[in-house]
Model the fold of this input.
Amino acid sequence: MPTSSSTRELRGQRVVLRPPVADDAETLRAIHSTPEVAAWWNLPPERFPFDADPETTYLTIWHEDAMAGFLQFSQEQEPDYRHAWIDLFVDPRRHRTGLGTDAMQTVIRHLVEDLGHHRILIDPAVDNEAAIGCYQKVGFRRVGRMRSAWRDRDGTWRDALLMELVVAPHG
Done:
C-alpha cells in the first residue's frame, strides 16, 4: 500500500498510528461498513484500503492492541500553497472515548513538527456534530460551508464544513 516515506509508527497518549498491513483489511472494512461510519464515508470499496491514492498516507488507529479506526492525510507540496488535509473514522464502539481526539493530536503533531506544515484542513459533513466537536477540540476553526461537496450512499449531494488549523509557519 502506498504511504509517504516519512510515515512511521506514531505514538499518541493513548493511541498508536501505523501503516495498514494486509491482516488489517478485514477489520478496517468491517469498521468502515458500520452504519455510523458508512453514513459519512459511504460503504468501503472492495479493495479498501489497498486501492489507495499514492499521494495519500493511510494509517490505522490502535488502542490497547486492538484496531480503533483509520486515518488518512495528504499534502500539498507547492511551497506557496503548502498545507495538509486529514480525514478519519473511529470504530463506533469507541466513539466519545477520546481516541479520535488523541489520533488527531498525534497526526497534527507529525504534520507540523516532522513535515513542517503550518496549515491543516478537514471537511466533515455539516451535520456530523460529533466529528466537528472533536476537530474544534484540537484547534480547528470553521472556515465556511461547501455546498454539495460530497455525495452520500443514496446519491444525494450534501454540504461539508471546511475547517482549518493554522499554526505559526516555520519560515
Remarks:
- Residues 10-166 form a domain with the Aminopeptidase fold (CATH 3.40.630.30).
- The beta strands are 10-11, 16-18, 56-63, 66-76, 83-90, 119-122, 141-151, 157-166.
- The chain has four helices and eight strands.
- The two ends are 33 Å apart (CA to CA).
